[in-house]
Design a protein that fits this description.
Rossmann fold; Short-chain dehydrogenase; 8 helices; binds NADPH dihydro-nicotinamide-adenine-dinucleotide phosphate; globular; 46% helix; oxidoreductase; alpha/beta; NAD(P)-bd_dom_sf; oxidoreductase activity
C-alpha cells in the first residue's frame, strides 16, 4: 500500500527537497506551508497535496491534522519548519525570542501531540523532527536556536520511550550546514557594539561566500530522512 508523509515548511530548502524525494520514491506527500498559493513546483506533482499551515498557529495545527488524517492513513510526520536567529542575545527583542521558540519548539510539540491518536489507532507511525548539529554542540550567537534544538533532542528521547511501547517511532535528523535559504533567512538580530569584533569574526566563519558555496545540498538530508522513515528503528539506544 502506498505510504504517506506529512511535511511542515515544504515551501523551500530541506522540506521541499524532501517532498520531491518521497514523491519520486512513490509516496503520497502532504506538503504543508504558510503560503501554498505561491507554490508552483509541487502543485505539478501527482499525489502531492498542498495544505496551508503556519506551525505557530495552534488552531490551524488542529484543523490541518484533522484534514490530513481524513484523507487516509499518514505513516510519517516530518517536523521540518524552522529557522535560526543569529546575534547577541542582549540585542534580541522579546518578540524574536518568542517567535523562534514558538516555531522550532512549541509548533513541533503541538503538531506531534495532535497526530498521536492517529498513530496510536494504527499501532504504528514515525515522527521525525529536523534538529541540527546545533542540537548537539553549541556556538556563540546562536543561543536561541540551540535552546530550541537541544530541547527537541531531550523531548525526542523521552517521547521515544513513551510512544515506542505503542509501536510509534520518534527520532531526529541532525543536518550539518546545508545549502538552503536558511542562512539568508536567519534573522540577524540587532548587534550590540560590545560584541562587534567577535561577531564579525563569527560571521566570516559561518557566512562567508566561500563557506556558503561549499555547503551540502538539501537532497543529502532528504536521503537521511528517507532512511529514518523506513529503517523501522526507534530512537532508543
Ligand atoms: P529554509 O529557510 O529553506 O526552510 C525553512 C522552512 O520553514 C520554510 O519552508 C519556511 O516557510 C518554514 N517556516 C518557517 N517558519 C514557519 C512557520 N511558522 N510555519 C510554517 N513553516 C515555517 O531552511 P532549511 O530548509 O534549511 O530549514 C529546514 C529545517 O532544517 C529547519 O528546522 C532548520 O532549523 C533545519 N536545519 C537547517 C540547516 C541548514 O544549514 N540549512 C542545518 C541544520 C538544521 P516560509 O517559506 O513560509 O518562510
Amino acid at each position: 500500500m502506498t505510504k504517506t508523509i506529512f511535511i511542515t515548511g515544504a515551501s523551500s530548502g530541506i522540506g521541499k527537497a524532501t517532498a520531491k524525494f518521497f514523491h519520486e520514491k512513490g509516496w503520497n506527500v502532504i506538503a504543508t506551508m504558510r503560503n501554498p498559493e505561491k507554490e508552483t513546483e509541487l502543485t505539478q506533482l501527482k499525489n502531492v497535496t498542498l495544505l496551508p499551515l503556519d506551525v505557530t498557529d495552534f488552531e490551524q495545527i488542529r484543523s490541518v491534522v484533522a484534514e490530513a488524517t481524513s484523507l487516509g492513513k499518514v505513516d510519517v510526520v516530518l517536523n521540518n519548519a524552522g529557522y535560526g536567529t543569529v546575534g547577541a542575545l542582549e540585542g534580541t527583542t522579546d518578540q524574536q525570542i518568542e517567535q523562534v521558540i514558538n516555531t522550532n519548539l512549541l509548533g513541533v510539540i503541538k503538531l506531534t501531540k495532535e497526530f498521536i491518536p492517529h498513530f496510536r489507532k494504527n499501532k504504528e507511525g514515525v515522527f521525525i523532527t529536523i534538529s541540527s548539529i546545533g542540537g548537539l554542540v553549541a556556538y556563540p550567537f546562536f543561543s536561541l536556536y540551540h535552546a530550541t534544538k537541544w530541547a527537541i533532542e531531550g523531548w525526542t528521547e523521552s517521547l521515544a520511550f513513551e510512544l515506542g511501547q505503542l509501536g510509534i517511532q520518534v527520532k531526529t535528523v541532525q543536518p550539518g550546514p546545508t545549502k538552503t535559504d536558511f542562512v539568508g533567512r536567519s534573522l540577524v538580530v540587532p548587534e550590540h557594539p560590545a560584541y562587534d569584533e567577535f561577531f564579525e569574526g563569527f560571521k566570516k566563519m559561518f557566512f562567508s561566500d566561500e563557506v556558503i558555496n561549499g555547503l551540502e545540498p538539501p537532497e543529502t538530508v532528504s536521503e537521511v530522512i528517507y532512511e529514518a522513515a523506513t529503517d523501522g528503528k526507534n530512537r532508543l539506544r
